[in-house]
Specification:
Blueprint: H1 5-20, H2 24-37, H3 42-55, H4 58-71, H5 77-90
Helix pairs in contact: 1-2, 1-3, 2-3, 3-4, 4-5
Length: about 110
């Protein structure tokens, strides 16, 4: 499937702007369009995770951050930091370092 990556990011940014203005539900179609255009863009997927956090849906946010992490873990600090906290909050096993197999920051409360 051909993607339209160069067009996905602006839609995600419009969604982020609407989220920051508190217009959460109005932002949803922009994130959905961004994902439709490029479902493998780690930033677009992670921004959808941030949007789900704004909506209060922690499980869905976790799933989007995990999808972003699985697309590319190296250097994906946006997904990493949110996964560490969400896994703890949701009572899920900790995020593991793909190289060492050790949990990231297992002491986070």
């Amino acid at each position: 499937m051909e993607t339209w990556s160069e067009y996905s990011y602006p839609y995600a940014m419009i969604g982020r702007c609407l989220d920051s203005l508190g217009r959460i539900e109005e932002a949803t179609p922009y994130f959905e369009k961004a994902l439709l255009l490029d479902p493998n863009n780690i930033f677009v997927v992670a921004y959808m995770g941030l949007h789900e956090l704004e909506r209060g849906d922690f499980k869905s946010a976790h799933d989007y951050f995990e999808q972003s992490w699985n697309l590319r873990w190296y250097g994906n600090f946006l997904a990493q930091k949110h996964l560490i906290i969400l896994k703890k909050h949701l009572g899920l096993p900790p995020l593991l370092d793909p190289v060492t197999g050790n949990p990231y920051y297992s002491d986070i409360q």
